[in-house]
């Protein structure tokens, strides 16, 4: 039996490889958005299609297309990480001080999320000028109800389309410190189960009532269940009740099964009862299982190369998520069209380099200095 190993000290909480997970999550989303952008502006990639008309995928092309298009699942990976980390830190704080310092929690989350977020909003006039886009609605993003607004207008507004996930997390942060502070700790699993059940019932209602499927994709209640699953992992890890005794062959088998299904069916589809209730938990629970193994199981499947690079990219992953989607039409209009180029590899290269460059700049000159202030409000010290 392999017990969870911790990288924590009595004074500092540190989860090794968490930033690596953040990078892979953001890269999934980045690549999916960039690929969808290419298909939208230039048609399907020729290397994946049957002929030069770019209309029909080859058999292999269909598999690759499905896998890339499912990259939005990286958002759920972020949700799992957030639910796990936030819940664990709050449980540690309550253990240490017998209470939750709620104001300090809100200040910490604001200092972490808001600077880069509001920078993107402040730069929106420049973005829509460079992308030749229409002016979006600012208020839903300033007040963090973008996801509800997108459902109402049935439209993804540039450059705010992807900010719905930030809004879902902000809604979670608004309530969760009160939950951990005042809900009896031994009854938290029942609450977690109740929230997940409510999320499933809500998506069922959306299906049977014939509502816009965007409710199941964007509504906070429809998506918070994955964050709560991450919180459940944190609860059982905190109480040292999770152990692993999975041999490598079993883990490899589970991951291979995941990949087979991942590359053969959409992660997000809401047309049947199975799709709105059970389907996404197949993906999220296996990823959660793999996440916990990756963080805590010393019996690793393999050694990941370029670990320092992945760790660094994980540190700037928030900026990558924010700005990569904004850059897509700008790169097409200001570079690809201007150079009369339809070189897909150049397009992806420019997208990645500019995304990493902007994210690194924002991290070092905006996020990092502000995060020093965040330390002043930490009850439980953390390290990245």
Instruction: Give the biggest sheet.
Output: 2 strands, antiparallel
In the predicted model, the low-confidence regions spanning at least 5 consecutive residues are: 1-6
Give the terminus-to-terminus CA distance: 29 Å
**Oligomeric state of this protein:** single chain
Structural class assignment: mainly alpha
Beta-strand percentage range: under 5%
Number of beta strands: 4
> Looking at the structure, what is the overall shape?
globular
Element string (H = helix, E = strand): EEHHHHHHHHHHHEHHHHHHE
With strands numbered from the N-terminus, the spatial order across the biggest sheet is: 1-3
Mean pLDDT: 92
Number of domains: 1
Task: Present the secondary structure layout.
Elements: E1 2-3, E2 12-13, H1 18-42, H2 59-69, H3 74-97, H4 102-122, H5 124-130, H6 139-142, H7 146-153, H8 164-182, H9 188-209, H10 214-218, H11 220-238, E3 243-244, H12 248-262, H13 273-277, H14 279-296, H15 307-315, H16 317-336, H17 344-374, E4 381-382
Parallel strand pairs: 2-4
Antiparallel strand pairs: 1-3
Summarize the structure.
With 384 residues, the chain is an all-alpha fold.
Kindly describe this structure.
The structure is a single chain. The chain contains 17 helices and 4 strands. It has 384 residues and is mainly α. The protein has one domain. It has a two-stranded antiparallel ribbon. The longest helix is centred in the C-terminal third of the chain and has 31 residues, at 344-374. The radius of gyration is 21 Å and the shape is globular.
């Amino acid at each position: 039996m392999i017990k969870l190993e911790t990288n924590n000290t009595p004074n500092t909480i540190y989860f090794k490889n968490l930033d690596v997970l953040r990078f892979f999550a953001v890269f999934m989303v980045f690549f999916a958005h960039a690929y969808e952008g290419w298909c939208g502006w230039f048609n399907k990639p020729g290397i994946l299609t049957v002929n030069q008309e770019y209309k029909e995928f080859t058999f292999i092309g269909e598999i690759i297309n499905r896998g890339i298009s499912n990259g939005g699942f990286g958002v759920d990976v972020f949700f799992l990480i957030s639910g796990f980390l936030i819940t664990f830190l709050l449980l540690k704080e309550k253990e240490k001080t017998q209470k939750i310092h709620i104001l300090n929690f809100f200040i910490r989350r604001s200092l972490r999320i808001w600077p880069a977020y509001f920078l993107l909003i402040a730069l929106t006039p420049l973005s829509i000028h460079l992308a030749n886009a229409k002016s979006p609605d600012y208020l839903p993003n300033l007040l963090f109800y973008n996801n509800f607004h997108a459902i109402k207008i049935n439209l993804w507004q540039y450059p705010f389309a992807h900010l719905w996930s930030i809004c879902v997390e902000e809604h979670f942060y608004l309530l969760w410190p009160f939950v951990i502070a005042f809900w009896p700790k031994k009854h938290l699993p029942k609450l977690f189960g109740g929230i997940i059940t409510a999320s499933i019932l809500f998506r069922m209602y959306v299906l049977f009532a014939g509502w816009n499927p965007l409710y199941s994709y964007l509504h906070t209640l429809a998506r918070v269940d994955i964050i709560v699953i991450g919180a459940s992992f944190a609860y059982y890890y905190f109480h040292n009740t999770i152990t692993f005794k999975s041999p490598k062959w079993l883990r490899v088998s589970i991951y291979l099964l995941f990949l087979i299904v991942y590359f053969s069916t959409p992660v997000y589809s809401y047309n049947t009862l199975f799709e709105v209730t059970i389907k996404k938990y197949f993906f999220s629970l296996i990823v959660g299982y793999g996440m916990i193994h990756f963080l805590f199981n010393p019996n690793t499947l393999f050694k990941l190369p370029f670990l320092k690079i992945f760790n660094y990219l994980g540190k700037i992953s928030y900026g990558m998520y924010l700005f990569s989607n904004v850059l897509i039409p700008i790169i097409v209009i200001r570079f690809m069209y201007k150079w009369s180029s339809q070189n897909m590899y150049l397009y992806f290269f420019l997208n990645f380099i500019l995304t990493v460059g902007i994210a690194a700049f924002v991290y070092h000159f905006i996020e990092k200095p502000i995060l020093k202030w965040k330390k002043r409000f930490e009850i439980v010290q953390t390290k990245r």
